[in-house]
Amino acid sequence: MPARGEQDDVVQDIIEEPATYGDAILSSDDEVYTKFSERPLTQFYQPSQKRASFESLPNRERHEEFIRKSVEILLKDAVFEGTSRNNRVLQWTCPEELSRLMEFGLKNGPSTHEELLEILKKVVNYSVKTGHPYFVNQLFSSLDPYGLVAQWATDALNPSVYTYEVSPVFILMEEVVLKEMRSIVGFEAGRGDGIFCPGGSIANGYAISCARYKFQPDIKRKGLHSLPRLVLFTSEDAHYSIKKLSSFLGIGTDNVYLIRTDDRGRMDVTHLIGQIERSLSEGAAPFMVSATAGTTVIGAFDPLNEIASVCEKYKLWLHVDAAWGGGALVSGKHKSLLKGIERADSVTWNPHKLLTAPQQCSTLLLRHEGILAAAHSTNAAYLFQKDKSYDTKFDTGDKHIQCGRRADVLKFWFMWKAKGTSGLEKHINKVFENAAYFADSIRNREGFEMVIDQPECTNVCFWYIPESLRSCKQDSDYKERLHKVAPKIKERMMKEGSMMVTYQAQKQHPNFFRIVFQNSGLDKADMIHFVEEIERLGKDL
Amino acid sequence: MPARGEQDDVVQDIIEEPATYGDAILSSDDEVYTKFSERPLTQFYQPSQKRASFESLPNRERHEEFIRKSVEILLKDAVFEGTSRNNRVLQWTCPEELSRLMEFGLKNGPSTHEELLEILKKVVNYSVKTGHPYFVNQLFSSLDPYGLVAQWATDALNPSVYTYEVSPVFILMEEVVLKEMRSIVGFEAGRGDGIFCPGGSIANGYAISCARYKFQPDIKRKGLHSLPRLVLFTSEDAHYSIKKLSSFLGIGTDNVYLIRTDDRGRMDVTHLIGQIERSLSEGAAPFMVSATAGTTVIGAFDPLNEIASVCEKYKLWLHVDAAWGGGALVSGKHKSLLKGIERADSVTWNPHKLLTAPQQCSTLLLRHEGILAAAHSTNAAYLFQKDKSYDTKFDTGDKHIQCGRRADVLKFWFMWKAKGTSGLEKHINKVFENAAYFADSIRNREGFEMVIDQPECTNVCFWYIPESLRSCKQDSDYKERLHKVAPKIKERMMKEGSMMVTYQAQKQHPNFFRIVFQNSGLDKADMIHFVEEIERLGKDL
Questions:
Q1: Per-window interface: A 21-50 vs B, CB < 8 A
Q2: Could you tell me the domains of chain A?
Q3: pTM of the entire structure?
């Protein structure tokens, strides 16, 4: 903590005089001029030399020019140049170097607006441009212009979504969007329930919480300590959040039984039945299957109809983690990938992934009404008063485990208003076309090898094999040598800042690349660029 | 779900031709002109009549003017006029009316930019202005101008904070801010650990998770089913999230033992000891006390030093929920309210409350290194590769239960850079002064009665007693009649939009107002305004 009472405070005190809203002007040698009449007028119009005020209330005279200048920096450096193919995805600096360049340290006295604008430029400069067309590293990318405007609006309104009185627009908007999403999932007449969550992991946690509440409502009051051992099932390729949240919820990672996947990464239903039977024979209490629609690495879709039938037979809650693949539901062409999802009890679907809503926009959708509130509500008197002047069914906050909560709905609703359902569909069709084109481009190209020959989603996994390795496939150290190729190419692309794509090992496979497409601003030429760029970076290895 | 294949699509398809970046121009009767040469040039400069494009990539020609016009609306309607004392805090509409006015429904075809700008205006118009000086309704308020700029920057960069490679700036920034906050809490040399969380409730959940992991690390794998009954303790005035998250974590609400509070709302340590002994006598396993520094309603600070000594004696984890009161730590004048907090194992502190960082900015701070990761990590191979080109200790995402995660740090760091620690201190001192002035103003004023005579924090609880009730204090129905006063005044202020302050009942007390001060742009005249406004609204009741 910086020492208090430095000389800076004197300056700050002077400029807080209500009469000097124009703030003190500092000359280059930091001398303070408090009497405006002593200075030529032009110096008063260097607002960037104003010191920041401590008050938390915007004031046109004090802040307007600073905010406008900040917006100019953001529009230029982040929004337009940051997403231009002419510029880099990132400017690589190692952690030690970045610490020096960014001057993260906090001090006692205030900064001038000019200093803050410089800081802002640096923040943008050294940040990765996740909206850049060549950022294909994660299950999110893009900088949707309509989503961005809506985020900025959300920030300018700074809401917290728990009661109608505080967030009237966002409370009603959430209900409309969630109902529309349930309709698209195929829940009858869009009925059911839903919430916006801070990420798909926590959405999956809510699903587990609802499933076990349905299994045994006493859990809410009594907890798990006196119950039989609860067991849930998910595939070995499922997202790690199923294990992580099972642990957080007190179920324990050992009680997540992992089901084998087939050669295309889909849950093996025979093995699922065997594991359910195993849990029963152990005297445990199976209560839930979490299927995946679009696995994190391979992009596989579990056979939902078959799994739904198993769940019906054994009376298990069916959750579908469609955080990644859910976006395909808006496309007439691709929604069959999720056949059977309408039989799910709950669905995780993140519009911030395939549909490129800004971070974060995650939902949990339920076929059942009332369980979310029954499982989670505590009826806090200070927030959810029942004697309000409006119908308090609109105070929906108590079904969440969050209290204060950002309005993550506006960005997605606004994008949907902008593009229409038909626009969302075009977006999905385009990114699937791009992924197919990329896969076609490398499938028979020398030096490339597919991990899964026919990817189902828009993530494509492949190896790049440098020339030096192509004739060594029979060598005993081939896999070991191939394992080192992707990290090396990744290091080179990071240092050049030319693109970002991730890699990993899985099961028996040495490190391979996983390229991911969500950005519908990309086209076929970009797909060819990626192929050639990886060749350029790796050919001499 | 809207039907697909409407005529709109034709328009959309035409304007997607790469050659017509200027987009189609629609005449007022919606006729489509696709050949630019047929129209006078001026019509091309009506960009607001452009239809929204479906691509998720910003493009200057398509989007710049739309984004700029949007910013103008936000600056005028939300940032400056929305926080002006000359304007209303809200424009009240009941849910049914608002549904009609806002046209929330989604359609198949795209909107024009002009339509989107109108929609944006409506969103702002019907939203509550939480940055307005007269919004004193919740434990958050204000629209900090530096925080706002930093939020807009976060959105323009759209990061997800889990690895250094994707979020280099924000990963390092988080470590600096969390260390500084630990120093202020008083953890030795700022050592320990910490995370940004999506709200204080989930931060409290993390604390419970860490506490039980320390008590029994096997819980992560094995869960709670075979363990003795875990019990934790918090005061009856603590935030409801302790119960809610205990339930979510599988502990159960019955196993949160509520400790009585004294007449100023502080935890009764004698009762705490009694309840710990009770749990032991029941054969349960007490593992944690959650003390509160700044209770939600009364603003009370539990006696942390006494509680810390009890925790040491019984070997219990001490968590301090300072979500609300933590901000007082930056003030030399007020930090003694939290004496003993440096003995805590974990602390929840939300800079979005007293320090007015934008929603959301919540932290959990720990005195212990390593427990967060030990309790929560699952080492996903696809994200946390160990063979990267940099030191992967900077890939901190695995200690969170979230996977994708917004960068909530920038807004607070940027505010801190702007104001300096001294500015944060001035802010805190000002809001405490305001609260004291408000309390002084009503303490001996006819028609007002304090619930707690000497509030410790900046929330002040009081009754307003209309003239008609002042002589009826001995009547048997006095409390019943007083109970109806606050809801009625609240309804009137909502409908006029003149201010927003919340009310509630508690224990034996009929409904009382709780006014909350965080906005350092307020001054003494505003305090008097609140008093007089409540009198104006309620005097005839």
A1: none
A2: 8-122 (no CATH), 160-407 (3.40.640.10), 417-538 (3.90.1150.170)
A3: 0.92
